[in-house]
Amino acid sequence: MYLGVHVSTDRKSLTGKTMEFDFKHIEEKWQKVWRERKLYRSQSLPDKRKYYVLEMFPYPSGRIHMGHVRNYTIGDVIARYKMLRGFNVLHPVGFDAFGQPAENAAIKNNTDPGKWTCECIDRMKKELFRMGFSYDWDRELATCLPEYYKWNQWIFLKMFEKGLAYKKASYVNWCPSCLTTLANEEVIGGGCWRCSTPVVEKELDQWYLKITAYSDKLLSGLDTLKNWPERVLTMQKNWIGKSYGVEIYFKLENGEVLRVFTTRPDTIFGATYVVLAPEHPLVKQLIVNKPQEKEVLGFIDKVAAESKLARVGTDVKKEGKFTGAYAINPVNGEKIPIWVADYVLMEYGTGAIMAVPTHDQRDFLFAKENNLPMRVVITPKDKESRVEDMVEAYEDEGIMVNSGAFNGYTSAEGKKKIALWMEEKLMGKASVHWRLRDWLISRQRYWGTPIPIIYCDSCGVVPVPEEALPVVLPKNVKISGEGGSPLGKVKSFVETQCPKCRKKARRETDTMATFLDSSWYFLRFCSPRDTKAPFDIEEAKYWMPVDQYIGGIEHAVLHLLYSRFFTKFLKDLGQVHLAEPFDRLLTQGMVLKDGEVMSKSKGNIVDPDEIIKKYGADTLRLFILFAAPPEAELDWNDTGMDGAWRFLCRVWRLVAALPHTGALRKDKGQLLPGRHCAVIKKMHKTIKKVTQDMEGGFKFNTAISSIMELVNELYRLSEPEQKSEEAVDALRAIVTLLAPFVPHVCEEMNHMLGGKESVFKASWPSFDEAFIKEDEVSYVIQVNGKVRSKVNAGVEASEEEVKLLALGDPKVKEWLKGISVKKIIVVPGKLVSIVAVPASGRG
RNA sequence: GCCGAAGUGGUGGAAUGGCAUACACGACGGUCUCAAAAACCGUUAGGUUCACGCCUGUGAGGGUUCGACUCCCUCCUUCGGCACCA
Question: What is the pLDDT of residues A338-368, one digit of tens each?
Fold first, then answer.
């Protein structure tokens, strides 16, 4: 039996005599044991409560960084804790293996992206393994394998069947560096999410998924996510962006109708011009044969050439041109000019607005610049406002004026009344507009899932039949990196037969956005080897939802929105029973160094591998968990690592100093009764506190600190006392309480304490209130809000008794000299607050 | 501009209406040692006092309360997200 205390050879700075433990030996030993015994293999057991804990699976870059370490450590602690609580835990891992980095690496090194990815996965697995994570490796998956992406194609075809996958020509976001299109969610601050290059617009024929069909459900579903961070909910809510308003119909001279969306129908009488987005389909009709034609066309080209970033920048001046055409305001028959301007966006609302310069700041600035008319239609209460005095638009609510029959109403009333009136007179229609756009999924890249579509000259767009799946991504493809879908150059792939008419046809050569792969992988983990379906419905019924999901905030509106969309779609398809995939969400904070994000360019990266070599995985885990709460940012510091290491050594020494485990029970120490109680009481208190911290939101840092307190308590004992039965009981509790955080060393200590099984087969220690209960409580005594003394009182003491005790206290008496007591507040078990005023009777 | 989060010792952080600064890091002092390291013990918000103490103190200011880091109002600062959304 291993009982020895080894001197670490890797850490020169802390080599003591029998002070340290050999983490290298211990970690390797237990990782091997766990693997061989398949300790973390999971299977559905209908009679057992399940717990599905999942961390956002990694992109296999080949190396893990501190962000990964933190993310997966948090998940691992939760998984191990739930195991100890008797749950049937599912804790899988896989790789989000399609994507551009592999393709770029392939271009650079002239290798195959598949080979590169597999090598990265292997390297990464070794690193993950060294951290001691409790993954069920039998469920490992990689999205780049045909057995996985076949089901991406299957889901796509189901969507196509339901009209939720469609192709359309439109203006799309284009990254000039990645040479591919981007979804709206992938444009971050006007730049590409991957390389930050300013995104430009391009008119292309592309595939979309109709996520907007689920706008309402995606929005209302947010209310059911009680255990998601407020921040993420808000971000999704804003992203979906529901606004209520009215669509108003303006007649044009040529008989066409221009639809305009507004959230302020109460200002319609103040509309003095209308503005179209430069891309608006009516613009070109309106200017035909007008003197303005040439100028407007020039302006449209100019806007089209601008990057999105340049167009929507804060300080960019709004520019526009008069089209020469007019529209009729339906409420008063007024003929108002139609302009084209860059501040109106085609992708929102109807791509056209009614401009009310007096009550919209953007319209105000634009009208001033271009000498357009203005009319006040809303005034602040009890105040007159005049156009001549206005220095900015009045955007608040107010009283309607110059608005015909609606004069005198408040804007809130007016909004409702005008909407009703317009509907009645067919001038417009109450409507809702969304900010959310359909999800553009075509990518002009190689390393992704082929879109299972065939183009036939006779039959048109034909889906690949289900039985012909997967459409396998061809290997050995020459990727130039010069743009254009690489699959387009693979003759054997492109040329195919039409599934309908058997004539020659062509395959779609774009691949799917990789966010599609990750939109349902959590379902695949329920039955990862299923060959008949994306996942087994019964298995999913047992394991889903993910009880605890953990990942970075950067996916607040990308992955987390798409996954919700897919789950809702699969529910409608009858594949899954729930509408929301993730019950609880924890967004872990970033790992910083000197207050800055770790990055190659800043040269401030701390490599987990080096830290593991120097301190071991347990110490690294402990430091990361102890240094900050999981949601908060964590500033890396090396001395903190030493602290974590020292603590583990302190615990280790207590265990290592015990005589051979077999003799322990006989070796009753000689504890004084008072001491005896103190250790046992502290143990029960600690178990209670740690349990509460784990249950009430995973407050690992405070859980660990309370375990430290218990350890400190043991160090206050004499050496013989440290070997007493009571101390050993406390040590056993410590080992189990610490096990989720530092699993290897706890396995070893559990073994040293005579444990025959893995510590994770044990159950979480329980506490007994009877041991925690105090006979006496210390009451704080405040006089006029300041702490002046303390008294001890029995737990059972009545308020009256406590009051008398407080008033009898000599220090309190001193403070009450010359003033008279007005009121005494007793908070049972806590404090007495005495309110007193000067006795001189002035008041 | 809008939305969100945060602001506490030299540092990371704890306390969500009841003793502010648990736990840890760092620093200082001590024990052990020829010495150092390690380990162990102690001190460590500021001011004031020989001392017991007392006063001040959780970004700023105000309010509610017997009592506020905690709740409310008005600001300031930092970070994050969104941003011509009609």
Answer: 999 988 988 888 999 999 999 998 899 899 8
- The token duo for A774 is 């105090």
- Which DSSP symbol is given to A402? S
pLDDT tens for A534-550 read 999 999 999 999 999 99
Q: Which tokens go with A567?
A: 């789950």
pTM attached to this predicted model: 0.90
| CA-wise closest residue to A309 among A169, A183, A173, A205 | A173
Q: Give me A276's structure tokens.
A: 């179209």
Which neighbouring-strand residues pair with A469?
A: none
> In whole angstroms, how far apart are CA A277 and each of A183, A252, A296, A339, A340?
21, 16, 12, 9, 6
ipTM of this complex:
0.93
Residue A779 · residue A790 · CB < 8 Å:
yes
Distance from residue A260 (CA) to nucleotide B75 (C1'), in Å? 40
Q: Which residue, A810, A808, A775, is CA-closest to A793?
A: A775
- Per-residue pLDDT, averaged over A35-59, amounts to 94
Tell me the per-residue pLDDT of A752-807, one tens digit each, with 9 for 90 and over: 999 999 999 999 999 988 888 877 788 888 888 888 888 888 888 888 888 888 88
Q: CA-based Rg of chain A, rounded to a whole angstrom?
A: 35
Distance set, CA A253 to CA A241, A323, A441, A485, A573 (Å) = 34, 13, 40, 45, 48
Query: DSSP assignment of A514-556, as one string?
Result: GGGGGGSHHHHTTSTT-SSSSS-HHHHHHHPSEEEEEE-GGGT
Strand B: positions under 7 A of a protein C-beta atom:
3-5, 11-15, 18-20, 22-26, 37-41, 54-55, 66-68, 80-86
The whole-angstrom separation of Cα A840 and Cα A476 is 99
> A52-64 pLDDT, tens per residue?
999 999 999 888 8
On the 0-12 / 13-18 / 19+ scale of CB atoms within 10 A, A748 is: buried
Between CA A659 and C1' B41 the distance (Å) reads 26
